[in-house]
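Course assignment 3, question 2. Fill in each field.
Student: A.L.
Task: Predict the tertiary structure for the chain below.
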Amino acid sequence: QVQPVESGGGLIQAGGSLNLSCVASGASFNFYAMGWWRQAPGKAREFVAAIRWAGSITYYADSVKGRFTISRDSYDNIIYLQMNSLKPEDTAVYYCAADRFNREYGRTFEDLNKYDLWGQGTQVTVSS
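Answer field:
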């Protein structure tokens, strides 16, 4: 079974940029959609961005719109999250997730239950 593996996290100063990657371990990401989520200590997991494979349509949380960009490579093996103008409140563990078959088609991309495959996460820490 394909497994998402995140990388690219780290410690960065406010205002800086990071580019997270999510690689398909074992196969390609030929799924309905992929998303990035994050979870800060003591808080619920929060939607960040999603990309639907058909047409590469993207969706963003209001908190990151204009600063973050989700994209995918042409071989369906990697998705990226380019994060610019980082703020201390962006500090969290960032997770890559897959909505493989759109079984939960009644749910929006902002609904955690829409996703059925998750990576282990990568830590992003933004210092002020």
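Instructor remarks: The CA atoms of residues 4 and 119 lie 5 Å apart. The first strand starts at residue 3 and ends at 7.
Grade: pending
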